[in-house]
Design goal:
This protein is mainly α and 44 residues long. The protein is built from one helix and no strands. Keywords: Membrane, Transmembrane, Transmembrane helix. It holds the Pfam family COX4_pro_2. This is Aa3-type cytochrome c oxidase subunit IV.
Length: 44
């Protein structure tokens, strides 16, 4: 069985996925804030 060496795994795909996840989270957060602002202005 091969010995595991810490830091030897290629993690580029995981980094791209995590970056996309953060971007999606930021967009979702922005849309939620926008929806709250629009709802508040519509009820004013």
């Amino acid at each position: 069985m091969a010995e595991y060496q810490h830091g030897s795994m290629d993690i580029r795909e995981q980094e791209k996925t995590f970056s996309g996840f953060l971007k999606l989270g930021k967009i979702g957060f922005g849309l939620a804030i926008l929806a709250i602002v629009i709802a508040a202005l519509a009820n004013a």
